[in-house]
Amino acid sequence: MDGDLIALVNKLQDTFNAIGGEAVDLPQIVVVGSQSSGKSSVLETIVGHDFLPRGSGIVTRRPLVLQLIHTQSSTTGTTDHDGYLPDLSAGHGGPYRPAGRSMGGATGIDYAEFLHINRRFTDFDEVRKEIEAETFRVAGQNKGVSKLPINLKIYGPGVLNLTLVDLPGLTKVPVGDQPTDIERQIKNLVLDYITKPNAVILAVSPANVDLANSDALKLARTVDPRGLRTLGVLTKLDLMDAGTNALDVLTGRTYPLKLGFIGVVNRSQQDINLDLPLDDARRKEEEFFQNHAVYRNISHRCGTKYLAKTLNSVLMNHIREKLPDMKARLNTLMGQTQQELNAFGDATFLGEQHRGSLILKLMTEFARDFVASIEGTSLDISTKELCGGARIYYIFNDVFGHALQSVDPTENLTLADIRTAIRNSTGPRPSMFVPEVAFDLLVKPQIKLLEPPSLRCVELVYEELMKICHNCTSPELQRFPRLHTQLVEVISELLRERLGPTSDYVSSLIAIQAAYINTNHPDFQAGSAAIAQGGAQPLPPQKVPSLAGSVEDDESSSEDSGSVAPNGTLNHRSSTTSVPETRVGKLLAEPKTKHHRAVSTGASAATSPQPQVIPGAPTTHQGSPNNAKETFLNYFFGGPNGGMPVQSNSAPGSSHGHRALDARPSPQGYAPRDILPDLGSGRRNGGGPSGLDAGTAAYDMKSLGKHLETEQLVNLTPRESMEANLIRSLIASYFGIVRQTIQDLIPKAIMHLLVNFSRDAVQQRLVTSLYKPDLFAELLHEDEALVTERTRVKALLDAYKEAFRVLSEVSLKSS
Ligand SMILES: Nc1nc2c(ncn2[C@@H]2O[C@H](COP(=O)(O)OP(=O)(O)OP(=O)(O)O)[C@@H](O)[C@H]2O)c(=O)[nH]1
User: Fold this and answer.
1) Which residues touch 374 (CB under 8 Å, ≥6 apart)?
2) In what residue span(s) does the GED domain sit (predicted)?
């Protein structure tokens, strides 16, 4: 039973070595000692073979995990119950046969196996060479040390069940080309092993050096201060100065260790040189103790044989003691490993007949994850960054919102441009009033400025959805990279399909806004009123109290009057309510005027703001959008519908051919030309390009533009400047309204056409595209790395389970 324990630990050690399970702290004996203290000699005598490298300097440079496995002798078929054949007189069958001497005989063969090569060694010289080669391979030629252990098993009827770890000897000074920190390196390596509470420390100290200077004991003390798991070994007792002895140490009077001290005498260097067989050396050792005057009385507790036996029982007791801990640890590990294994997928879905349901399950999970990410109901919601639906909201609200707000509605629209547009829209004739068509002409391209940010918004949401789709994965799905790729591909295709219609719709929303400039929009009318109000300064006494006059006065203040909000938009609501009952303000504060057109020939503009149709005046545009548009600027610049007194006897024909409202008859009977004589002449005399007068390039925008470029902008006449500023303010006002609408509509459109559509279609699309039995094999092709990893985890779990089972049996029997 006890033999089983060590065999079990050995088995666990192998399993964990092979599959990388470092988690179990297995009970093992760790040999520690300073250089040349005799560690290798002790190990060799325990094993009964010369198999360790020898030489000067540091020979042991990698940990050597040595498992001694007792096998039954084939001649006797028996063994003593603790797996140890103690009878030295048994000769070849004894435990301390030198290498090669008993090999090949009927008594059974000792042989060695390394974990790193699949080969059985029966020649222990070869074992030594292999250890040397393997040491060099990893730790380099005579260089530093390596933590990577060499695993060696020695089988034979002559060995005890034992697990020992040989470590590099503690050193002080680097020699040769050793690294300068060799002392620290070795110390750390040793500490790595002896710190583990399940390690039994075999502290080897030479008896010919004062125990107070023992590096092994010093280091052991740091991790086992009460000396509970340290076994002291005193070597070189034969080399002590004459007259001195180590009796006090061996009897535990000098240095207290629970497991005590055992004295040994190994082969001297000379013995080695003379190739003294190990069994001869053991006899010599036995004789040494039995014949020694001081040690005679304790000779049964001295020597390598006794050490081996003690180690065996110490290790078994230690394992037995650690059983509950190991079981608890294994239990935890089993739980963890099981969980790890579960992450690779439900075992119930393995097998060909379940492929369809597995694919369906993975698809559904994928679709569910995708929808959950969008809706923010995902289980693993990040707290580090916005994700999924929240990012879409962020795109709408912050990114898109800011992008729209940063669009300057009058960008690239200089006063000169506006003047040019005004002039172009008046045709060859000088015009007295600002034509509404100019406003129309100018505002449309500005509305188009909203298109790029809107389309970008679609793209950003699309990209976000793509990201969500790529992030939808699970450890189970990772097993099937091709299925995952296909799932992502199908969703990507769905999203791509939706990108076109969504972008088109968004573009058409902008186009719709540009298609019809609704100057009759209530907010715009209110905003326009505020603009007008901003310019409604007290009129100079000498002028006719006309709108034109008030606006003209505004020219000096319009730049800084603040009628346009800093962001280029108007606060329509407050403007509306704060519009004083000025003439223009009152007119514009009643947005429904257009719809109530009535013949009201005698009404004054101040009390009757409705655009009025004059008998005999051209009415062809009445009711049409153009007509509606043509009306609103009249509030500022006069015209038949505005408050401007216009002479009814003005020739109606003079207005046709362009949309300028200057010559339209008004019910009041004044012609704008009459009341604003300076405007028309001002343009001709002041800022007007001479080209216009010459008439040669009146319609040529280019030459006009060039001309304007050459002329300084300040050359705008006051009238032109006023007109241009006013138009600009109105553009900003109108643009603000459109922007608000767009800001509201685009996210709705994107949600409907892209996000919600994809969300609702994802499951069905996946099923129709991928749920095809002939695709199953391809889709369920497993990732090889993951298959390996799953196999490893499965093997680990099995090993834990097996270890747990054996441990349970052992503890049952021993209880
Ligand atoms: N006389 C005598 N010599 C011993 C005894 N033990 C070890 N030696 C000698 O001491 C030297 C060092 O012994 P090793 O067993 O190689 O010492 P080590 O601790 O393994 O050395 P490193 O692996 O280099 O750290 C060898 O020449 C041994 O023959 C002993 O009990 N008596």
Assistant:
1) 388, 389, 392, 465, 468, 755, 759
2) 724-815
CA 2 – CA 814 distance, rounded (Å): 9
Run of H or E residues at 202: strand 199-206
Token pair belonging to 602: 């005698």
pTM of the model: 0.50
Distances (CA, A) of 741 to 513, 521, 524, 735, 737: 9, 12, 13, 10, 6
Ligand 1: centre distance to CA 267 (Å): 8
Spacing, Cα 241 to ligand 1 middle (Å): 17
Both tokens of 219, joined, read 């280091």
What strands lie across the sheet with 230-235, from one edge to the other? 120-121, 111-114, 150-156, 64-70, 162-166, 28-33, 199-206, 230-235, 261-263
Cα of 238 from ligand 1 centre, angstroms: 12
Residue 373: pLDDT above 60? yes
Which mutation among 32, 34, 41, 237 tests ligand 1's pocket best, with the greatest number of atoms within 8 A of CB? 41
Across the range 59-72, mean pLDDT stands at 84
Residue nearest (by alpha carbon) to ligand 1 atom 12: 36
Query: How far is it, in rounded angstroms, from Cα 522 to Cα 688?
Result: 35
Bridge partners for 231 per DSSP:
202
DSSP symbol at 567: T
Give every CB contact of residue 797 below 8 A, 6+ residues apart in sequence: 334, 337, 338, 341
Q: State yes or no: pLDDT of 678 exceeds 60.
A: no
